[in-house]
């Protein structure tokens, strides 16, 4: 059967508008990616087949498939490939990362991953998945955020992940974060996020002292918006540029609370990415990946992220956050 000429024209136009010289770097809070096994060292009791949430093998596999379908498409309007690097939040362990990168929508992308267990009270961590044919990892380590309760007891939260590597022969340092939530109140918990920001600034100071004019990418779910004190502390002390200052609007963000958009998920970069003579990675775009298929289609929550759970009620969606991403052009 011969294809009509207009189909070939559409395919040609589609391919010509995909740029193999554009790399996507993303961050995605994937909403409680737990396996179905009971781990006595983590607080995973809500995510077991016998729990009230009934976190069954079928639901787990469905979540992996759906997350993979999102990750593979982030930034697809400008590039011919899935993201080179994705920071993740709310990961239980290495097993779920192995299952994710081996899931049906990601296995062909050949992602590797970096993960360290932290002492977070919820048993979740940050992680990095990456294409090792594009990003050559040289080094990684984690940093703890020291917090105390009002009674002086240690308050454990997610560690901060640092990964050093080369993308397009350019050495970059990626710092992945998931800062303390606002669950007990925005002002009441602000000191926790300020403490995390100070740790990030200290990491960047150390890198600059050791290596000079380093290129840094700071990504995460900061549980604060652009303009909040913790984020401006990063911008001012570490001289970072935050493109998500202008992405957040009344009808666009990475998550929605009480029908108000927030941009808790952000990616900041050092100013030397704008040096025309000093970089092989030219920043071109920042955005939220909010394609219709990751949103709720109907009802009063239309357009908001299609979640896996609302409380204990299973919805079968992707995550309560949208991914965010940057794109860089290479020579």
What's the layout of helices and strands?
Layout: H1 5-16, E1 22-33, H2 57-71, E2 85-91, H3 94-101, E3 111-115, E4 125-131, E5 135-143, E6 160-167, E7 170-178, H4 186-211, E8 216-221, H5 229-238, E9 240-241, E10 255-257, E11 260-262, E12 265-270, E13 282-288, E14 309-310, E15 313-314, E16 324-329
Parallel strand pairs: 1-2, 7-8
Antiparallel strand pairs: 1-16, 2-4, 3-4, 5-6, 6-7, 8-12, 9-12, 10-11, 13-16, 14-15
Helix pairs in contact: 4-5
Written account of the structure:
21% of the residues lie in helices and 28% in strands. With 331 residues, it is an alpha+beta fold. The chain is globular, with a radius of gyration of 20 Å. The longest helix is centred in the middle third of the chain and has 26 residues. Strand 14 and strand 15 form a beta hairpin. The protein has one domain: Deoxyribonuclease I, Chain A, CATH 3.60.10.10. The strands form four sheets. The protein has a six-stranded mixed sheet, covered by helices on one side. A six-stranded mixed sheet has the order 5-6-7-8-12-9. A two-stranded antiparallel ribbon has the order 10-11.
Radius of gyration, CA atoms, in whole angstroms: 20 Å
Average the pLDDT over all residues and give the rounded result.
93
The count of β-strands is: 16
CATH architecture: 4-Layer Sandwich
User: pLDDT under 50 segments (min length 5)?
Assistant: 6-16
The CATH topology assignment is Deoxyribonuclease I, Chain A
The first-to-last residue Cα distance is 41 Å
- Give the CATH level 1 class: Alpha Beta
Following the backbone from N to C, one meets helices and strands in this order, namely: HEHEHEEEEEHEHEEEEEEEE
Domain count, please report it: 1
Number of helices: 5
Q: Please describe the biggest sheet, giving its number of strands, its sense, and whether it closes into a barrel.
A: 6 strands, mixed
Q: What form results from the Cα inertia axes?
A: globular
Helix content: 10-25%
């Amino acid at each position: 059967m011969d294809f009509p000429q207009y189909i070939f024209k559409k395919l040609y136009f589609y391919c010509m508008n995909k740029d193999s010289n554009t790399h996507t770097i993303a961050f995605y809070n994937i909403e409680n990616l737990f396996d179905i096994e009971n781990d006595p060292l983590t607080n995973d009791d809500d995510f077991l087949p016998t729990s009230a949430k009934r976190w069954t093998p079928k639901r787990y596999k469905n979540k992996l498939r759906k997350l993979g379908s999102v990750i593979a498409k982030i930034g697809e309007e400008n590039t011919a490939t899935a993201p080179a690097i994705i920071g993740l939040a709310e990961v239980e362990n290495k097993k779920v990362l192995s299952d994710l990168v081996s899931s049906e929508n990601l296995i062909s992308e050949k992602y590797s991953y970096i993960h360290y267990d932290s002492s977070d009270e919820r048993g979740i961590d940050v992680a990095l998945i990456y294409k090792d044919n594009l990003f050559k990892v040289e080094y990684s380590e984690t940093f703890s955020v020291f917090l105390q309760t009002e009674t002086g007891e240690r308050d454990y939260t997610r560690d901060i992940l640092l990964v050093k590597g080369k993308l397009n022969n350019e050495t970059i340092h990626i710092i992945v974060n998931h800062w303390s939530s606002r669950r007990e109140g925005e002002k009441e918990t602000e000191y926790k996020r300020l403490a995390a920001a100070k740790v990030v600034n200290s990491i960047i100071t150390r890198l600059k002292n050791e290596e000079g004019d380093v290129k840094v990418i700071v990504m995460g779910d900061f549980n604060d918006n652009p303009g909040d004190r913790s984020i401006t502390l990063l911008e001012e002390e570490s001289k970072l540029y935050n493109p998500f200052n202008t992405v957040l609007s009344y009808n666009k963000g990475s998550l929605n609370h009480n029908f108000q958009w927030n941009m808790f998920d952000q990616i900041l970069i050092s100013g030397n990415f704008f040096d025309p003579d000093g970089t092989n990675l030219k920043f071109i775009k920042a955005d939220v990946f909010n394609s219709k298929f990751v949103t709720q289609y109907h009802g009063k929550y239309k357009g908001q992220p299609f979640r896996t759970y609302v409380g204990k009620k299973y919805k079968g969606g992707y995550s309560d956050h949208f991914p965010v991403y940057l794109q860089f052009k290479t020579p």
